[in-house]
Fold this sequence. Notes:
There is one protein chain. A hairpin with a 2-residue loop joins strand 6 and strand 7. Helix 1 (42-57) runs antiparallel to helix 2 (60-66) and helix 7 (220-230) runs antiparallel to helix 8. The longest helix has 16 residues, at 42-57. This protein folds into 2 domains: 8-184, 3-Layer(aba) Sandwich (Rossmann fold); 198-245, no CATH class. The protein is α+β, with helices and mostly antiparallel strands. The chain contains 8 helices and 8 strands, in the order ββαααββββββααααα. An 8-stranded antiparallel beta sheet has the order 2-1-3-4-5-6-7-8. The two termini are 43 Å apart. 29% of the residues lie in helices and 25% in strands.
Amino acid sequence: MVEVSTPRIADLRVQNFRFLRDVLLPALTPFTVVVGPNGSGKSTLFDVFAFLSDSLSIGLCAAWDQRGRFRELRSRGAQGLIRFEVTYVNRERRKLRYVLAIEETGRGPVVAEEKLLFTRGSQGRPFTFLDFAHGEGAAMAGQAPDQGAERRPQTLAGPDLLAVSALGQLADHPRVAEFRSFVIGWYLSRVSAASTRRLRLGGFPRPVRRSGCHPAATTCPTSCSTCPSIIPSTGTRSCGGWRRACPGSPR
């Protein structure tokens, strides 16, 4: 019987991305605290996750443009590619390692290297089952790729497209789809001490999740206890709908 666990990131390496010239975070845990002075790169670290998620959901070009392109994204003084390496552990405790390297040409960002490596078993050696660069490459299909399996050549519509994003939407590539769904499912919530000081006691905090039984699931208890005291008739009707959408809300 396969032991099931919570999918997570096991380690992360970032090169030439803003403040992060060459940073390795090994042996990450499901709950990790990042501490450092202002300007040390904490926000940049979290933007790594946002950038990867955006690249696989809205496209590399859009994620690139939102952040000021190479001029703003590559570490100052650096000459190499922007590079990310992420090790993902799935529910079956199998590891997938994702490698992405980006360069910029006169027409925009280009995927210089994109790989997915799969490890069979806890003691197995990782092998590459997806390998692309500049819009061309090959990938193994199937639920459990084997090192001896055939890699099928593929050509993407452009050098700026991510193979994980494209192949991850096909039924023939369930492992790629699994990793893609994991990454685009990330949600980052930024909460600062300054923002909490502006909240009125008993006020209406903004939702911090986009998943759950309802978009406002995390704010239902506060909203339901506050609304009737401000606008009795409207608040009562609204809370009735929230309680049906959010089981466990206060009566």
